[in-house]
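Hello again,

I reread your note about wanting to compare the complex against the isolated chains. To keep things tidy I'm splitting this into two emails, and this first one only covers the full assembly. Below are the input lines as submitted, including protein chains and any nucleic acid or small-molecule components. They are followed by the predicted structure of everything together. The single-chain runs will come separately.
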Amino acid sequence: MKYQNNESWEKHQKEIANDNYYLARSCIRQNFFPAAEDLFMKIIRNDVGKNIFDDPRQTTCTGIAYHSGVIPFETTMTVVARQFALMTEAGFENFVCSCVTSFGIYSEVIETWKQFPEKEKEAREILKRTTGMTFEIPKNVAHTSDLIYKFRNEIAEKAKFKLLNKHTNEQLKVVDHVGCHYAKIFPERGVGGAEFPYVLAGMIDAWGGAQVDYPERRHCCGFGFRQYLLKSNRGYSVANSKIKFDSMQPYKPDCIIANCPGCTYFLDRWQYVIAEMEGITYGENGMGIPVLTYEELAGLLLGYDPWDIGLQVHQVSVEPLMDKLGIQYNADAKYKGLNNEDLGQPVKPANLQV
Amino acid sequence: MIMTLYDELKKDIRYEEGMKACINCGTCTAVCPAAAVSDYDPRQIVDLVQKENEKDLEELLKSDDIWRCGECLSCKTRCPRDNVPCYIIQALRALSVDKGFFIESEQGRRQLAIKRTVGDHILEYGYCVYIDEVTNEMYPEQGPVWQWMRDNRADVLQRLGASYKQDKAGALRNTDKQSLIDLQKIFDATGGTARFDKIEEASARYAAEHGIDYSSGHDEYFNKTYNGD
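Full-complex prediction:
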């Protein structure tokens, strides 16, 4: 009997606003995938035709510090209140954040205020006293991957490529990694809930690829907040990522997509570390499995230049995936600056082929 | 009236939300990434805490155990009785810092290094992470591509359309002064600054008692807690 898991997913849908979004940027994505959020906005504005606002006054949600135990929840709630106040001042009602930790934080604050109304009152009073600001709670809170999911069929219609191997015409095998704080905290706030998170799998289906249903599919990438942030604790992080790589490798995935900035970073960088420390590589010919964000994959399929969207700053090379897709790219331009300026090249790793 | 540790723990909404009634089934431990790679056992911690023994609680607050959770919250999804071991850990960590107990354990002492990185970055840059602070020496797993990007960051970030060091919307822009002032005021009014001060003050006492150089930034105490040597 075939397991009809997609039918289960369809029962767990969430409301995602149709237009006019206030964007909250991610601490991690701005640094490690610095073109990803702007690519996301280009797709939403130019390819999907929706309105999104990038506010220069926004800040962190403090989620990484909160989940590492160095600041109290009251601080986080009031910083979140300030973010909502900025959204209100800008005239928006739909809040979309680029970080999965932030998505968990915004969801947690709103749910906490429902359960403990005195905490909302306290946050409002402190925000007013310290900054003079007031706010409305967003009508809709979404993660950026929710929007790409919502418009996945429109993206498919405009795409120049499908998730097919141009040499064999077989579906490309794509691992989806959904960040823990997307749906494990508040399942009803994630597409497909915690049991059948469909937010990334839906993109794979719509864009012609094949999902990889491997045993450790739902296991954490191993960020662990304070466990990664300290060099002395980092073994926790790489060990958990390795559990996932060892589990997915027999299925020979062509790429991994993740919706959490941290997960994307760890699944990329820990492949390099495992190769250099243990001599183990998970891709073909001594290379790694390419790891992309959801909008990076959408961008490739839509025909954006890979070096315009920042794929050169991934440690695991994405060329094997582009070769399978049949995407033409200028290898000589990979590490050039503006106007073809020569910026040298990264040192090649000892074991990981790039 | 003297407050017991349990009196204080029960004031924390994270504890109120996280502790219902544990049936010791161990589902949390089975699904826990920390338990997968260490001796951490959330079932044992929840069971110990729900027994409400003041002496055992104080011992727990001074131990490494409460610092091993990675706060992925996989336990929240799976507990059949709606307990949230991670929320209980959050409340235990807050109380451990508040009482100064965190310096009694090696893992607890490491809070100083986190405060001086992501904590201080928020008030300096407006975000928890900032490229100028992420060196390959501190984060060797970043690898050679990051080293190349960081060495050429002004050019690479311009090529990628970021707003690095610029006063306009975009990735890695300068956070405006008023926003940083707002953050500082919020931290002062909500206990964020007070927690930072408690971490620094207790760490300074421990450093003085153990002859470790302690000042600010990446001093000897920071390096010991960050690197674990």
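For quick reference: The two ends of chain B are 42 Å apart (CA to CA).

B.
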